[in-house]
Amino acid sequence: MGLILSTMKQKIHVFLVCLLVYTGLQAQTQQGLGTFYHVRHWGHKTSSGEPYHPFVFSAAHRSLPLGTWVEVEFPKTGKKTIVRVNDRGPFLRGGVIDVSKVAAQELGLVSYGISKVKVRALSPEELTDSLQTALLKRDSLAKAEHPKPIRKKASKKKKHKKLKSKKRKKR
Question: pTM of the prediction?
Fold first, then answer.
């Protein structure tokens, strides 16, 4: 009787381990709507604290840890790209990921705006040192090639005109 219970426990244990491994693999691949950040967010702080740069392959994901590398596939074009999660979002119902402008261009997502994508977190085995180095180099070259544009602030004349018009309205 004791022998039967121990083999039964072993079988249950093996089943639970297999179930956990299977659900872990399923959780790594997600399907849903993908969008991209507009260029106007250039320089705004992300959840990781780094400024958004449209020419760096980055993304926003709700639940994956910041710094996770993910492969995004756009089934309509069959194209894939690898991005790093550095922000939280998207805040769109059914949205799975927001990618940077350059990643959206590489996928062919820009002309669609919003479309279904597949997202898969890369495992440590897939993300070799040489691949990670190449990806980081790609992003640092993009930052050097495309420095942040200088935004013109509103001139003092415009501010002065706005103040005058507000004073006139009060009278």
Answer: 0.70
